[in-house]
Amino acid sequence: MTMRFGVIGTGAIGREHIKRISNKLAGGKIVAVTDVNQASAEDTLETFGLDATVYPDDKTLLADPTVDAVLVTSWGPAHEASVLAAIEAKKYVFVEKPLATTAEGCMRIVEAEIKHGKRLVQVGFMRRYDSGYVQLKEAIENKFIGEPLMIRAAHRNPEVGENYTTDMAIHDTLIHEIDVLHWLVNDDYKTVQVTYPKKSKHAHENLKDPQIVTLETEGGIVMSAEINVNCKYGYDIQCEVIGEEGVVSLPEFQSISFRKNAMFGTNVLMDWKDRFIDAYDKELQDFMDSIKLTGEPNGPTSWDGYIAAVTADAAIKAQNSGEKEQISLKEKPAFYNKQTEAVN
Ligand code: NAD
Ligand code: NAI
Ligand code: ISE
Predict the structure, then answer these.
(1) Ligand 1 centre and the CA of 243: distance in Å?
(2) Strand 28-34 versus strand 53-54 pairing type
(3) What is the mean pLDDT of residues 222-233?
């Protein structure tokens, strides 16, 4: 049966997801859209040739009985209210990161979902579906490099706008590393510290960029993540896991190599939309398939969203204090004990 989607937020990623559900993936259809910018929601009908209803807000969209599931792709501060309203309406929800902008907000979602009695929510931590990260996880779990001891990661964006603030390096950008790195090594975070190297001349006046975030796990693994959002040369995601017996690294983006004008090289992507295109496809296909098969989504849970929010809050505290800050999670409810599968 076709899953009928309503989209809440028709900006950059909302449009990407509308496109993939309409043209590429199997089993889904967009039947409703809304955006605080109504003109943007209306525009999607013509741009993507949708046969869909435009609603004035999330509540009216959720009241449409033909909507089976929603994509929450509005900006982060609006996510919590839409997700809670969707749970209340008993609809499935695929919500982009962050699940909510505070740990308390994530807990409210966790509690509402548990009260509902079965999983409805999947968070858009798409890196868990990226074949490179899945291969890294398999290598670690097979003990190919022995025990993992350290991770060196980098998250580089070519540039950001004037509205990108220092804390966004954590809750908008590092949030992907926060989710994927502890998942890779199946460990919990214990502490976080942030240091600031020399500031890039490309960073706007009020932005501290680059930043180095050091995360320490309960098992003693130390992870260092460079966040560098004005690196200019490309959109570049690096991850190297150093173990007792060897080192494994995230594969580079596949590109032809070239010899030209006295150079030998390969291309580097410029846009996040392209770097994880397969992972975005897989996460949404898995969302639809697993709900059809089991009645519940299989991907990253509301609890994963909560872990990311607690860790991000501690990292933002560390940005301001310069100190090593503790990361304290509540006990995981049994409701979330079923491990999410890595899908490749
Ligand atoms: P965007 O600004 O392009 O789009 C956001 C849209 O949401 C805008 O059209 C805005 O008008 C609308 N909106 C805001 N509040 C709303 C509300 N309350 N109700 C309805 N619509 C609302 O932003 P974006 O780049 O598409 O990012 C959207 C979300 O996707 C963010 O949470 C972001 O973190 C996430 N994102 C994830 C990835 C990823 O790699 N997984 C990449 C980019 C963005
Ligand atoms: P965007 O700004 O392009 O789009 C957001 C849209 O949401 C806008 O059209 C805005 O008008 C609308 N909006 C905001 N509040 C709303 C509300 N209350 N109700 C309805 N619509 C509302 O932003 P973008 O880049 O698409 O990001 C959206 C979300 O996707 C963010 O949460 C972001 O973190 C996430 N994202 C995730 C990425 C990933 O790699 N997984 C990549 C980019 C964004
Ligand atoms: C954006 O919201 C994303 O999620 C991208 O994956 C990330 O690279 C970028 O820094 C964020 O702003």
Answers:
(1) 37
(2) parallel
(3) 98
